[in-house]
Amino acid sequence: MTGMALRDILIHPDPRLKKVTSPVTDIGPELERLADDMLETMYNAPGIGLAAPQVGVMTRMLVMDCIKSEEGAPRPMVLINPRVTWVSDEMNTYEEGCLSIPEQYADVERPAEVKVSWTGLDGAEQSEHFSGLWATCVQHEIDHLDGKLFIDYLRPLKRQMITRKMVKLKRERARERA
Ligand code: NI
Questions:
Q1: Full domain range(s) for residue 23
Q2: Residue 89 has pLDDT above 60, yes or no
Q3: Does position 1 have pLDDT exceeding 50, yes or no?
Q4: Distance 75 CA to ligand 1 centre (A)
Q5: Burial 43-82 (b: 16+ CB within 10 A, else e)
Q6: CA dihedral 130, 136, 140, 142 (to 10 degrees)
Q7: How far is ligand 1, taken at its centre, from the CA of residue 126, in Å?
Q8: Confidence band (pLDDT; 50, 70, 90) for 2?
Q9: Residue 7: inside a domain, yes or no?
Q10: Total domain count, the chain
Q11: In this predicted model, what pLDDT tens digit does every residue of 98-116 receive, in sequence order?
């Protein structure tokens, strides 16, 4: 039996985080293993969402769970080829972060509610109406599949400042590993 494994999370700047990913065409054991690993990696971080390109897999899949542990049972979700089919006119601002941009947070405005359709790991089509943190999270993660990061919504100066910090962080981590 193969257990779940933690995957390395790519840190911005990385060209793989800027690419548009390819649709999933084959749902099989390899994709199931990737989904399990991504959930494990996300919970371990800890985070509430993770997209495949963040672990270097250039495919349209994301995982998320926006239930806080004190609120009740976890709700791990796996979305394959997700697409937004409706957005509300009402907007909402959340202070967002990203596992690929550690310890950096900024307000991002997005539609407050969205409808999303996707394929599940069982191959069945699903759709759901998301609001609150779930709506923000699913939009943030779908952005990853299109090579877009939350800092792309910020003013250039702020974005450059965060990117410089990440370059420094990556240099420090590389030195620690050497
Ligand atoms: Ni992110």
A1: 15-177
A2: yes
A3: no
A4: 19
A5: beeebbbbbbbbbebebbbbbbbbeeeeeeeeeebbbbbb
A6: 10
A7: 23
A8: low
A9: no
A10: 1
A11: 999 999 999 999 999 999 9
